[in-house]
Design goal:
heterodimer; A: 269 residues; mainly beta; Neuraminidase; 8-stranded mixed β-sheet; 6-stranded mixed β-sheet; B: mainly beta; Coagulation Factor XIII, Chain A, domain 1; 2 domains; 6-stranded antiparallel β-sheet; 38% strand
């Protein structure tokens, strides 16, 4: 059952910086001095994880049974988050066994398999379609029922404990869907720029959104404008440092892998 | 990988006697160029086709491509062996369709005369697709620009597109693969209008045999669970899912400069609710519906997936089956391709629905459902107790292990297709 949900979230200032290089999709999460980042290779995700003080070259790489296609018109980066010991993601690969109702995945981090360059991708497309099904992705089903043209269809997720926030933007509107562990709730439609992808994240306890032009908002019972930052998505990826509760941005180009995440960030401050 | 056409070229040597001395002349190499010449990608996606030469005396050639109405330029290298090297000679080339490379006086360097990069005297015919399997140029030389002697012929493939191709897309999208030129031009040689071009390119898909440029037929699910979902992987591996086939057809049109927004349609079941859960999958013809177990009334047929279901190469593996896949609608180079899906992709051109995977054209969206389907289905997790069937035949109903089941109905009216459309 879908109910209207009112978000009661308090505004908090965010720390923003614009710098760096990177080859990862959408964001880097830092928690307990460990970073998590996802590279898309042949549509499937490769999770990089390692110490923030050590070179990227030393990071462990795991192949993910989830991924995202590369569309022709607009890039839709992988929608993913980590909460506790689990990775949450929306599988958006092109594969004929995918069902949109089963594309919201909950993947235990300790179930991941090491990635090797010679890894055969074939079984992972199938796993991405069939396994790690969490809850029915009703927000996707409803969106697909309601909209015919999908060039400007974008989505992202943020997870906090058992709560999942799935934000879906299309045709200059965005809807915040909330799963409380039992039921999907749906916000009203908010006016929102859909000329490019967006990202959502928690800044401390606040659910925030930044659109493709750098306009940032926090979500309560409406979208509350924070500021416009001089950045564009997806040319920029987010660094969500949960150790010091900061959000930074770095350019989405290839990283020098001999550097650590910490060095990459500090060089660009 | 360098593309070598070993069947075409021959080193041509002529031994002549003129002006009271003996000599041998041979065509060594021909190179095409032009401001509008396309950069063609290797079909194995390892880079671009070599443009250092397009014909060599050892028989190797490289194809090239141009938009119609543009001009090809050529350079040629000629080896001249004689006791007394002339100070200069005249060289010219005569190509097809009144494209000639005019006489130029050239001086030797050592025993080599190099005909410099020179535009043809006529452009490719405007607004006309051409496929020159052997773009043949007859090269000649002369001492006096009056009496001409044959040097030899160069022959290599040249593709000419109707209009300038649309720009390449990013990531794994539209790219100038050799096979895209080949499918687009080989099958529409001589065509002068967009509508005719679309029809001719489409005809190639209707006989269920679409060839890669090297002659290998490309398949639709030669491998039952093909992981190839991009244009590049279809061409590289000569096998792919529906995504790739829709993309190949659209790519062949884009190479001719034709593209429309909202041309790439994703079809899914509409998740209609039933007493057995929502319908999320569909079965493409033909499936035989046997005796239903009626574990669930609205979707009375039931199959149990084998644990190795996904390892199947050519036929589905079920531990228990009331619905059976049969040979039905033929796919590209596949008499019985995969047919149990959650989604399908087709191309939309001028309001019509081109299903390139099967080579079938639908005039309306509703035709797809009635023309292609055997039934609707859904998959879910259950066990023997859940479905009331002793799948492993041990005489009782086990509560574990779990397995994946397929529920199905042959009631075509039980659901509809949903469509979502993107631009490719």
């Amino acid at each position: 059952m879908v109910k209207r949900f009112v978000f009661n979230i308090i505004f908090l200032l965010l720390a923003w910086n614009s710098f760096g290089q990177g080859k990862f999709d959408r964001k880097i999460i830092i928690e307990d001095s460990v970073f998590y980042a996802i590279e898309i290779n042949n549509q499937l995700g490769i999770l990089w994880t390692g110490n923030i003080d050590k070179p990227l070259d030393s990071a462990q790489q795991y192949i993910l049974p989830v991924g995202t296609k590369r569309r022709s018109i607009h890039l839709q980066p992988l929608a993913w988050d980590i909460s506790g010991e689990k990775l949450y993601a929306i599988n958006f690969t092109e594969f004929s066994q995918n069902e949109i109702i089963r594309n919201l995945k909950e993947i235990p981090l300790d179930s991941l398999e090491k990635y090797q360059p010679e890894t055969n991708y074939r079984p992972y497309f199938y796993k991405a379609a069939m396994e790690n099904n969490y809850i029915e992705n009703y927000p996707f089903v409803e969106t697909y029922k309601d909209y015919l043209y999908m060039d400007n269809f974008f989505f992202d997720i943020a997870v906090k404990g058992d709560s999942i926030y799935e934000l879906i933007a299309i045709d200059n509107q965005i809807i915040v869907w909330y799963w409380n562990g039992h039921t999907w709730y749906k916000s009203t439609n908010y006016t929102f720029d859909t000329n490019a992808c967006f990202s959502t994240f928690f800044s401390q306890q606040n659910l925030c959104v930044i659109d493709g032009k750098g306009n940032s908002y926090f979500v309560s019972d409406k979208l509350n404008f924070i500021a416009q930052f001089q950045l564009e998505l997806p040319k920029t990826i987010l660094v969500d440092n949960r150790d010091n509760n900061t959000i930074n941005y770095i350019q989405a180009t290839d990283y020098p892998t001999q550097l650590s995440i910490k060095q990459i960030i500090s060089r660009n401050k | 990988m360098k593309l070598l056409y070993t069947t075409i070229g021959l080193a041509l040597f002529s031994t002549l006697n003129a002006q009271n001395f003996d000599y041998a002349v041979s065509l060594q190499e021909v190179v095409f160029s032009g401001d509008d010449m396309y950069e063609i990608r290797q079909d194995d996606n390892t880079g671009f086709i070599d443009t250092d030469f397009h014909w060599k005396a050892d028989g190797s050639v490289n194809p090239t491509a141009f938009p119609s109405g543009t001009t090809i330029s050529a350079a040629a290298t000629i080896q001249f062996e004689c006791e007394q090297m002339p100070a200069s000679i005249y060289i010219r080339g005569t190509g097809p369709d009144e494209m000639t490379f005019p006489s130029l006086a050239v001086a030797p360097v050592g025993d080599i005369f190099t005909y410099p990069e020179t535009p043809a005297t006529a452009p490719f015919e405007p607004e006309t697709i051409r496929f020159y399997e052997h773009f043949t140029i007859n090269w000649e030389f002369s001492f006096d620009n009056v009496k001409w002697y044959t040097i030899g012929e160069s022959m290599s493939p040249v593709y000419v597109t109707l209009q300038e191709a649309k720009p390449e897309g990013g990531f794994s999208g539209f790219k100038y693969y050799l096979t895209v030129f080949d499918v687009a031009c080989r099958n529409a040689d001589g065509v002068t209008t967009t509508d005719e071009m679309i029809n001719k390119v489409w005809e190639e898909f209707t006989d269920h045999t679409v060839y890669r440029a090297d002659g290998v037929p490309m398949g639709y699910y030669k491998e039952l669970f093909s992981p190839n979902v991009t244009l590049g992987t279809l061409i590289k591996y000569a096998d792919g899912e529906c995504y790739t086939w829709a993309q190949l057809f659209l790519a062949a049109l884009k190479i001719h400069g034709f593209s429309q927004p909202n041309n790439y349609m994703n079809i899914t079941a509409d998740y209609s609710s039933t007493g057995c859960g929502s319908i999320s999958r569909f079965l493409v013809k033909d499936w035989t519906f046997g005796t239903p177990s009626y574990d669930c009334f609205d979707m009375p047929y039931l199959n149990v997936y084998n644990p190795d279901y996904y390892d199947a190469d050519t036929a589905y593996i079920y531990d228990y089956a009331e619905v059976t896949d049969e040979i039905g609608v033929m796919g590209q180079t596949a008499p019985n391709p995969a047919s149990s899906f959650s989604n399908h992709q087709i191309a939309i051109v001028n309001g019509k629905y081109y299903d390139a995977s099967y080579g079938v054209l639908f005039n309306t969206f509703s035709e797809i459902k009635y023309g292609a389907l055997s039934g609707w289905s859904r998959s879910e997790t259950s066990d023997e107790v859940g479905i009331g069937i002793d799948v492993n035949g041990d005489g009782d109903l086990d509560a574990s292990p779990d397995f994946t089941i397929l529920r199905a109905t042959d009631d075509i009216e039980a659901a509809d297709f949903d469509q979502s459309i993107e631009t490719w």
